[in-house]
Design a protein that fits this description.
494 residues, FAD/NAD(P)-binding domain, seven-stranded mixed sheet, 13 helices, 21 strands, 29% helix
Length: 494
């Protein structure tokens, strides 16, 4: 391998080297969080960052093809649904006038704005950060060269190669949709989430294979945009979560006219010039569009990690310790390519802590009270342990379920679907888990997370002041059910 060069290809032996050079593979949220934190921790005068990105756009999944465009689509679909079916007798329902081309254009415009404001602007304002366009990998010669494991070879987008040396590395290459091995599928024009999010036309019948977070969010959005929707779930909806969440969400979906086929697998898929035919175990389904959304896998297979002995799990996710360091000293990983939860806020938090550790500090990331939200309607929001998870840890628990028709704000909104469930340690009463299915449920979960972070008991929570006619008051009411029947209380009962 040729000698390692700086990003401007100048490599003179007498050149004064910066105090710290960090090379980051990937340009998403994790990458920029690490870069900016390292500059803060180590000083801009002493730190140089090289970000290596293989795709056309910087910003990674979240801003380009994930969180941002999906929430725009979900919100537009929600407003369409409210025009079509609202709960107030004095407001006349009507069919919304939908123009997917205009919606898609607005969606893309906002994505472009945020990519410019949150990513490109960071490059423009921080000359210490250099962007290199190309595909990076740890080469065969890396382990035996004089630079050891501190270099990568970049196949540049404009042609040629460049070798980049660094003191520390962060791998933040994200993830890619996983495509199942179904007979005939590869020969069909199926959608992944990317095509579904930016489509300019709504199909008549969309079949969704998968019951992942993304699958469920897009399925409901398309139903609300006017499509017939069928969800084919290998297990049940949200089968890894508390079973009550999946059961109640299935009912909510079916109430909107979404067909949910649980414990079902596609055996074969064919496509003629007009339609898909999906063969199931004992029947078949035809549709004009098919979405494959069966999860995502880490983008690590082309990094040649084996050349530097970076360990991965059987799914290709890079294994990191509590410092976000891999099995190789000086090489860190964060985001969807690592074995941490696939949430953008976890990626950003993990990489900022990696930066602290790269620059001589000590930081780890506690995921005990990590909240999670699925943006269906009603929303699914969770934090902490389920009863089953607590049992696996030999924790004796006590739990309560409060249906949303006990929450005054839900009654005032005429939106009483769902529930709040709290799990407490039996011996102490300490809150250790919360599962919510509710309209705007995502706005409630952080309060539960903060209560858990501060080791509050359900009695502590029940005694807190919550503003009346807010959805979050439901947490107080659920906490009160551990000791009383809230249906017997007056409004605002403390």
């Amino acid at each position: 391998m040729s000698s390692c060069c700086s990003t401007n290809n100048s490599c003179t032996s007498n050149e004064q080297k910066p105090a710290l050079h960090i090379a980051i593979i990937g340009s998403g949220s994790a990458a920029f969080s690490c870069a900016l934190k390292a500059l803060d921790e180590n000083g801009k005068d002493n730190t140089r960052i090289t970000i290596i990105e293989a795709s056309d756009n910087i910003g990674g999944c979240c801003v380009n093809v994930g969180c941002v465009p999906s929430k725009i689509l979900i919100r537009a679909a929600q407003l369409a649904q409210q025009q079509r079916n609202n709960p107030f007798v004095g407001l006349k329902n009507h069919s919304p006038e939908l123009n997917r081309k205009l919606l898609s254009a607005q969606q893309s415009s906002r994505v472009d704005e945020l990519r410019q404001a949150k990513y490109q602007k960071m490059l423009d304002n921080n000359p210490q950060i250099t962007l290199v366009k190309g595909f990076a990998h740890f080469s065969d010669e890396s382990s035996s060269s004089s630079t050891g494991k501190n270099s990568v070879t970049v196949t540049l987008s404009h042609g040629g190669e460049e070798n980049i040396c660094a003191d520390k590395f962060l791998i933040a290459t994200g993830s890619t949709p996983t495509i199942p091995n179904i007979k005939g599928l590869s020969d069909t024009p199926y959608w992944t989430s990317t095509e579904a999010l930016f489509a300019t036309k709504t199909p008549e019948h969309l079949v969704v294979i998968g019951s992942s977070v993304i699958a469920l969010e897009i399925a409901q959005a398309y139903r609300r945009l006017g499509a017939e929707v069928t969800v084919i779930a290998r297990h049940t909806l949200l089968y890894k979560e508390d079973s009550l969440l999946g059961e109640e969400l299935t009912l909510a979906f079916e109430k909107e006219g979404i067909t949910v086929l649980n414990n079902t697998q596609a055996q074969e898929i064919n496509h003629d010039s007009k339609a898909f035919t999906i063969k199931l175990e004992d029947t078949s389904i035809t549709c004009d569009q098919l979405l494959i959304s069966t999860g995502r896998h880490a983008n690590t297979d082309k990094l040649n990690l084996e050349n530097v002995d970076v360990s991965t799990d059987r799914n290709g996710c890079i294994i990191v310790n509590d410092k976000m360091e891999t099995s190789v000293e000086g090489i860190y990983a964060a985001g969807d390519c690592s074995n941490m939860p696939q949430f953008v806020y976890v990626a950003a938090a993990a990489s900022s802590r990696a930066a602290i550790n790269m620059t001589g500090g000590e930081a780890n990331l506690d995921l005990t009270t990590m909240p999670a939200v699925i943006f269906t309607d009603p929303q699914v929001a969770t934090v902490g342990l389920t009863e089953q998870q607590a049992e696996q840890q030999n924790i004796s628990t006590i739990s309560r379920v409060l249906t949303m028709d006990n929450v005054p704000r839900a009654l005032a909104n005429f939106e009483t679907d769902g529930f709040i469930k709290m799990i407490a340690e039996k011996s102490s009463g300490k809150l250790i888990g919360c599962q919510i299915l509710a309209h705007e449920g995502g706005e409630l979960i952080q309060s539960a997370a903060i209560a858990m972070h501060n080791n509050m008991t359900v009695e502590d929570l029940a005694n807190q002041l919550f503003p009346y006619l807010t959805m979050v008051e439901g947490l107080k009411l659920c906490a009160q059910t551990f000791n009383k029947d809230v249906s017997e209380l007056s409004c605002c009962a403390g």
